[in-house]
Specification:
There is one protein chain. This protein has 408 residues and is an alpha/beta fold. It contains 15 helices and eight strands. It has helices at residues 4-8, 61-67, 69-75, 82-88, 106-116, 129-142, 149-155, 167-176, 180-193, 202-206, 212-241, 267-283, 298-306, 358-370, 379-382; strands spanning 19-20, 26-31, 38-44, 50-51, 53-59, 97-100, 333-336, 343-346. It is elongated, with a radius of gyration of 34 Å. Helix content is 39%, strand content 9%. The strands form three sheets. The chain has a four-stranded mixed beta sheet. A hairpin with a 6-residue loop joins strand 7 (333-336) and strand 8 (343-346).
């Protein structure tokens, strides 16, 4: 007959038993419920298969089953697990049925067990990110998060997260505890900041508890954002490199030119900007565009593009403006007009620095980044592979929780 511990862990059955050292391991007995019918044996400080210490928690099976659908399935009277059979055959004089939990953090488990046994005085007012992550791992494993909801309101801040120190751990914490907005915000930050590390597996970066669906979706959105930026860069190069078709019988600016000068729109300006843009893109390593951006994030690509440098003053030699086209209010200098060769007032050489495309490119990139969305929290994804569990429906928003008894 399969045991509860063997079912929960993927190791061979032979490795699921404790292997204490020659000297007895240190032992801690924690009576969460002094009359409890279950003892949870949790090893600590395990080196290989050697147990350095064991924590024994005496708890109530009724509390466990009420808090966790997983324990309810495992310990119900219809269960085929040997712990359930032992529990069903026990009497008031029997020793508590022991269940071995090999992978759980005993400190985090102690907090959870006290919470579901309503020992409020033993619960901390706050937890660090590392501590909350360990609690989340156990709650996600046994589907206990609903029973800790009151505590989570204190442990998880409501404020918006600003570049958390542990984004990947907070991604799992928000997923495990169904904090949808935090999950969306954190996943968006990861999409923009993730840089594929060389030689590291995904599990090393994201941890072993994030479903593969979410990891794949993060990679997909990162790739989409990067490709959108590259398309905009290539589009800009094409706009400056496209041949200009003269428009007959049209006086004024040519919409095909990218030159922004109001006094003298010049095709030479576009040619200069194209050449300088290509040189700058080569300098930052984005031209020609690499097949894949390994080790670089969306945010870093933006930083690179922000480093594109254009001169503060750009004067083109063949940019004359005839004095006859000037208005009397235009700031001028006195010299020979290069168009009509008359000594009259002419404009100073126009500065084409404002025609530089880098500011417009960054504005377009910012628009692309602004439209990057975080992931949507999905219960079906998080619960995949667990089998059927009972659903606990929270009260409706604004419900009167005092007058909640409905007589018929």
């Amino acid at each position: 007959m399969t045991s509860f511990g063997e079912h929960l862990h993927s190791q061979p059955a032979s490795s699921n038993e404790f292997k204490p050292e020659t000297t007895a391991p240190r032992v801690a007995h924690i009576n969460i419920d002094s009359e409890g019918d279950i003892t949870l044996a949790v090893p600590h400080l395990v080196e290989g298969s050697t147990v350095k210490a064991i924590a024994y928690f005496r708890v109530s099976s009724h509390r466990l089953c009420a808090a966790s659908p997983v324990f309810e399935v495992m310990l119900s009277k219809t269960s085929n697990f040997k712990e359930a059979t032992s529990l069903a055959n026990s009497t008031s004089k029997s020793e508590p049925t022991e269940i071995q939990l090999l992978d759980d953090n005993p400190k985090a488990l102690a907090i959870i067990l006290r919470a579901i046994h309503l020992q409020i005085d033993w619960l901390p007012d706050s937890l660090t990110t590392e501590q909350l992550y360990e609690v989340a791992v156990i709650c996600d494993k046994y589907d206990i998060q609903h029973s800790l909801e009151y505590c989570l309101r204190k442990w998880i801040p409501k404020r918006e997260f600003e570049a958390p120190t542990y984004p990947y751990k907070w991604l799992f914490i928000s997923m495990a505890f169904a904090r949808k907005q935090i999950f969306s915000d954190i996943s968006r930050k990861i999409v923009l900041s993730y840089a594929t590390p060389e030689g590291l597996a995904e599990e090393t970066v994201f941890g072993p508890h994030i479903p593969q669906y979410y990891i794949d979706e993060i990679f997909k959105r990162r790739e989409t954002a990067i490709q959108s930026i590259l398309v905009r860069v290539n589009s800009l190069l094409y706009e400056y490199g496209a041949p200009i078709t003269p428009i007959p019988f049209v006086v004024g600016t040519n919409d095909q030119l990218k030159c922004q000068s109001t006094s003298h729109q010049s095709e030479l300006c576009d040619s200069f900007m194209l050449g300088h843009l290509i040189r700058e893109l080569k300098r930052i390593g984005t031209y020609p565009a690499p097949a894949a951006f390994k080790g670089i994030s969306v945010n870093h690509i933006r930083t690179l593009l922000c480093s594109l440098k254009f001169p503060d003053k750009i004067f083109l030699q063949n940019s004359p403006v005839c004095c006859k086209k000037l208005s009397s209010s235009t700031a001028v200098t006195t010299k020979r007009c290069p168009s009509c060769n008359e000594t009259q007032n002419t404009l100073p050489p126009p500065n084409h620095a404002d025609c530089a495309p880098n500011k417009r490119l960054i504005a377009d990139v910012d628009h692309i980044i602004l439209n990057v969305q975080g992931l949507d929290y999905c219960v079906n994804v998080k619960s995949a592979g667990r089998g059927a569990t009972k659903e606990i429906c929270p009260p409706a928003a604004g419900a009167d929780l005092w007058h909640c008894i409905k007589y018929k």
